[in-house]
Amino acid sequence: MSGPSGKVDRQTTAPFHLKLFYRTGSFHSPTEFPTLDPKPLPPHLQIYTWKTCTLRELSHLLVSALPSLLPSPAIGTRLAYRLIYPDTHAPQNQPGRYLSKELGNVVVGSEESSGGRGLLPTEEEEKVVTNGVMAGVLEGEPDKTLREGNFIVGDFLSCAIFPPSADGSVVPPPGRGPGAGRGGGNDFGGRGGGYGPPRENGYGGYRGRGGMRGVGMFNGGRVGDGGVPSGEWRRGERVPEGPGPRGGYGRGRGRGY
């Protein structure tokens, strides 16, 4: 069960099934994930977890099952994550497709290499990552959770592993590539940037470390017959109550499988 603070009691709450796809040197393209075609999925790890799972824990589960994914030594390796999810706003007369959104990344470090910028595991994380590579200092966003990334059960995760450069330096975070949303991958929906039509349940707003994550705004109005508010609102959250389907925006629900 989930408490008032959003914490999940992992002893009493059943985990959900998650497919974690992995690749060295690049992300998966959303076109690699079948919609109607019965083609096989790319290589992936099947795990059971909770929405409070952090990127540190995900990285630990991945490299514990597949240790050959990390170079030796692993210091300086970046593991970057993206959400892969169906585009539920695609026109009905077009084939289905997947979209992607940045989730976050971690960099394997050390006390010396991080220069005080890295984070050690929390008490809860230590129960999972004990004696693993991810039990040490990590830079990036190791404490970010699936929930904070607006993950919805049924989404896929894509992990791109970037070993350090030949000189030992850390590879920069990957930029948003093609297929990272209708606006080319920005965080604000719409085509070509700015504040265009709402994206699938929002994915809007901005995220600042230590502040509100994925929180946006809406300005009323309707989109289509479903009465979904236009503007930016958090993906996966219930649409705010309104006057009803004719005079406002009514009620909506997050997407799932």
Structural account:
By secondary structure, this protein is mainly beta. Helix content is 9%, strand content 19%. The chain has helices spanning 55-65, 111-114, 123-129; strands at residues 16-24, 44-49, 78-86, 98-108, 138-140, 156-162, 206-207, 213-215. The strands form 2 sheets. A 6-stranded mixed beta sheet has the order 2-1-6-3-4-5, covered by helices on one side. Strand 7 and strand 8 (213-215) form a beta hairpin. The chain is globular. The two termini are 20 Å apart. The model is unreliable at 177-228, 230-234 and 244-257 (pLDDT under 50).
* Relative helix content: under 10%
- How are strands sequenced across the largest beta sheet? 2-1-6-3-4-5
Strand coverage percent: 15-25%
Secondary-structure element order, as H and E?
EEHEEHHEEEE
Q: What is the rounded Rg? A: 19 Å
Sheet having the most strands: 6 strands, mixed
The low-confidence parts are: 177-228, 230-234, 244-257
User: How would you sum up the global shape?
Assistant: globular
Give the tally of β-strands.
8
Calculate the mean pLDDT score and round it. 73
Alpha-carbon distance between the two ends: 20 Å
Structure annotation, total helices: 3
Structural class category = mainly beta
Main features:
257 residues, mainly beta, six-stranded mixed beta sheet, two-stranded antiparallel ribbon, 3 helices, 8 strands, 9% helix, globular, disordered C terminus
List the helices and strands and how they pair.
Layout: E1 16-24, E2 44-49, H1 55-65, E3 78-86, E4 98-108, H2 111-114, H3 123-129, E5 138-140, E6 156-162, E7 206-207, E8 213-215
Parallel strand pairs: 1-6
Antiparallel strand pairs: 1-2, 3-4, 3-6, 4-5, 7-8
